[in-house]
Request: fold
Amino acid sequence: MTITITPTPGVERPLSSSREEIAALLAEARDRTLQLIETVSEDDLRAQHDPLMGPILWDLGHIAHFEALWLDRNLDGKVEFVEMPGMYNPFDHPRRERGALPLPTLDATLDAMADIRERVLERLERVDLASDDPLLRHGYVYQMVLQHEYQHNETMLQTLQLKTGAPYTPLLRRQRPASVPNGRDERVVRIETNGATLGTDDRRRAYDNERPRHAAAIAPFWMDRTPVTNGEYLDFMSDGGYRRPELWSDAGRAWLTESKVEAPKYWRREHGSWLRRSMDDVKPPEPDAPVIHVCYHEAEAFARWAGKRLPTEMEWEIAASWDPAHSVAHEFPWGAADVTPSDANVDQLAFDVAPVDSYSANVSPSGCYGMIGDVWEWTSSDFAGYPGFVAFPYSEYSEVFFGTEYKVLRGGSWATRAGAIRNSFRNWDYPIRRQIFSGFRCARDD
Reply:
């Protein structure tokens, strides 16, 4: 079966609950999902390229069945299942085992996706969008399912970056803007915290772990104006950063001993110089672009080398959102307007990070640049619920992951769809993970 997709640009995220706009957003999300795989063979879609990631064919089936569950079966005032039973249940079938599942063909998977979408759109015509049911109010459940597909797009891109054999070649690449120096050359900025809040009370699209909004009583601090760049990270490497045990925590030293790495993932040394790969594009690391594909332990070691530390997620969000001049927390660094690929390096089609001064609008009230897009930023915080947290609509989305195993990342990456990021959005992963599109910035006490 030939997949023919017209590439679509990133779109803003209207919060209207009209049926027409919901249907348009669902169609745009599916177009992007299929666009990402148009240049990938069925064999590569079926393959388990790395134990860290399942086959993309599994992701496609999971996207469809999650949609069927929440936009058809669970719309009758009762939540029947929180994850679909069977082959596409992520808890029953962890990533490392998905390559052994009897996955259907690509044609059968695409047919199932189309059939489910047809039922969902038919159901959309009958559903009561003015209901008092919190799943339906403001079209919340549709926003949840849209974000689920967006997030699996990023998972698919992680898999495509890991792909064995010939590297993934995108259907197209969006040209990134030229770097425009903004006249600010300070490395760190002081963050005022008086009256600051954390989280949100939004019930339109925010996940349960982002709620509720609450006071953030912490002292002022200093934050890096930009993410740590390749040039800065190369200085750390040249100064023996990977060979100096005093820079690493006990867990970091254990990981370093086992992994034996000496550079970020997807870097290689050739003829005495470093090269890095983003999909099929191989070139020297751009000195002014954020370092990417580093784990928490690498970020922590760099921060110690630099005489700083990683920020807490509370500090990160205050630096991204808090406007002390007006005593308000913004949804995005620039204010309330939804993110677009013109504002920040998001929405996938650049397929790489950009130099740190490429998006002049991407500046928070505190003066921190690039807190949305380019790289997910590691924080020092464990993933936990906020005071007053209530699981909704199911505990398996976030509550089951609370604890000390996961560190929180913030801000999204170039691979994050515009509809799946905001200042309050919380990502989490194991501290050893490097296949994610992760970088960091540092902080220090006042």
